[in-house]
């Protein structure tokens, strides 16, 4: 069976009038063997200037991206929360092998035996690359704590002027709460044979520090030792938790 999830026919049958995020900003690294999955083909259809998403490590980024001096925004998240988030994503992601138990998955994550390789190598290589290429390196925890500040950074990097009204709209629509219920980004438009929300939702918690609900003391001590050795080679600093704002009632 071949799905074209961006076709008018699919959107009509599924009573969908929005344009999925995968169409607005295709994954450059996506190739699922079906029409909706070829990120490169969708990217070629989109007019310039294009917005491209990717999880690829430095070595697999097309040379043209560097040669054309494309501006890049790299969003990094603390490794412990990434491991937990990645585990739940692989639970729902039927395009990947089952992740096994949390204990098994954490070992694979530490050794880089997961899609897109080692978290440590990934963040370190992109961090170093910003010394020679226009890359805005952002932290997930900063974005959660002060979205206005981080959005302003992005606007300056892209040389865009945002009115206060537009800034407030962006903050509102990109909040986790809004995105979780937004079919443009929460993957609920995908068939369960691809992403199964009964196993875990794509937009799950969106907090910093959830790793504390999964890591045992022994796992945390082992991870910290490896983390310290890997990250000490750089000036990178990650916060493993932040003080979450009190929700408005």
UniProtKB/TrEMBL annotation:
Location(s), subcellular: Cytoplasm
Sulfotransferase domain boundaries: 33-234
SUPFAM superfamilies given in the database record: P-loop containing nucleoside triphosphate hydrolases (SSF52540)
Catalyzed reactions per annotation: 4-ethylphenol + 3'-phosphoadenylyl sulfate = 4-ethylphenyl sulfate + adenosine 3',5'-bisphosphate + H(+)
GO cellular component term, pick one: cytoplasm
Molecular function terms from GO: aryl sulfotransferase activity
Protein name, as recorded: Sulfotransferase
Example of a GO biological process term: sulfation
Enzyme Commission number(s) of this protein: 2.8.2.-
InterPro entries: P-loop_NTPase, Sulfotransferase_dom
Keyword Transmembrane helix: no
Swiss-Prot/TrEMBL keywords: Cytoplasm, Transferase
Family (UniProt): Belongs to the sulfotransferase 1 family.
């Amino acid at each position: 069976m071949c799905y074209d999830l961006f076709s008018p026919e699919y959107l009509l049958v599924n009573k969908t009038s929005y344009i999925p995020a995968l169409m607005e900003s295709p994954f450059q690294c996506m190739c699922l063997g079906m029409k909706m999955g070829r990120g490169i083909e969708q990217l070629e259809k989109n007019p310039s200037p294009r917005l491209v998403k990717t999880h690829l490590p430095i070595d697999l980024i097309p040379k043209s991206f560097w040669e054309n001096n494309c501006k890049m925004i790299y969003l990094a998240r603390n490794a412990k929360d990434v491991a937990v988030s990645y585990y739940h994503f692989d639970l729902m992601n039927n395009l990947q092998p089952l992740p096994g138990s949390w204990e098994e998955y954490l070992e694979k994550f530490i050794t880089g035996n997961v899609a897109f390789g080692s978290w440590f190598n990934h963040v370190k290589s992109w961090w170093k690359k910003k010394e020679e290429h226009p890359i805005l390196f952002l932290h997930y925890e900063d974005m959660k704590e002060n979205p206005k500040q981080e959005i302003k950074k992005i606007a300056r990097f892209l040389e865009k002027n945002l009115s206060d009204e537009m800034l407030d709209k962006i903050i509102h629509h990109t909040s986790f709460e809004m995105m979780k219920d937004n079919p443009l980004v929460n993957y609920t438009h995908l068939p369960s044979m691809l992403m199964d929300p009964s196993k875990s939702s794509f937009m799950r918690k969106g907090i910093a520090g959830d790793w504390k609900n999964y890591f045992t003391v022994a796992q945390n001590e082992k991870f910290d030792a490896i983390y310290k050795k890997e990250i000490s080679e750089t000036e990178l600093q990650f916060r493993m938790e932040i003080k979450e704002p009190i929700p408005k009632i």
